[in-house]
Design goal:
Rossmann fold; 30% helix; 331 residues; eight-stranded mixed beta sheet; globular; 14 strands; alpha/beta; single chain; 25% strand
Amino acid sequence: MNHIIEVRNLKKYFDINSRMGMVQHQVKAVDGVSFSVAEGETLGLVGESGCGKSTTGRLILRLIKPTSGEIFLEGRDINSIKDKELRSIRKDIQIVFQNPYSALDPRMTVTDILSEPLSIHKIVHKYEYGKEVKRLLGLVGLSEQDGKKFPHEFSGGQRQRIGIARAMATRPKFIICDEPVSALDVSVQSQILNLLGDLQKEMKVSYLFIAHGLNVIRHVSDKVGVMYLGKIVEMGIVDEVFEKPIHPYTKALLSSAPVPDPFRSMHLEVLEGEIPSPVNPPSGCAFHPRCRHMLAICKEKRPFLQHISLNHKVACHLADIAFEGGRASYA
């Protein structure tokens, strides 16, 4: 399978300095994340706030430099590229931001916003900017006349369409969608999700889709990665993870999602306590202080992602001990 993006053991630690300027602590925002995304594929990243989802996306974009690890774009090591050479990579990796209200320059018309990446990356000749802007607007369901307007003249959903058009302007191979529908009305969310799906089929672009909403992740993703405190604790084909979750944290997330069926009985996996501080994470498995299935080994040894089936991986000591015949006996 042709991988567009491959991430290997990616880490990002932020230093917390004392008043004297010395490093006092480190926040382990991303701590050993690995995954790959194939051409035309969507990987969904889900987890509680502060788990490192957005930081992972920004590391891939090289908006921030990783502490260690490797990031490959079609086999090319992004981390080894110098700052001056990054422009050739920027057009292949784009982002759709969470907040459509702050992502667009209020002083620029839509035509100017969409023409800027065309100019920077020399996508088309300057005499063809108008034609290309018209094409991009049509691509996201807006009219040519909308190009003359400013961002404040649009609704939130329309602004996000402009953001998507801007991301598509460079004809990228990979787009990071950082919670692109969380700031929108529910009625508009489905329109934006369907638009992203249609564009993916048409342009064969790959997505890293970051979201809190499990229903959104299941709708748009081919694979899903569940993050907790900077680590991926479970990953696999989206239907398999949703139907047969193994990690206790994944089960708790799925059980907390509302089901639109008043007659369906639900078994809630209630999590106790708060997410531990990334400044001082627990020893062993980071989830063990909140896990009702905790074993002695969970406090001492960190579990690593391992295959439990061809397309399903989990980082849990319980999977080693209790996994029998394709189903965890502790469930």
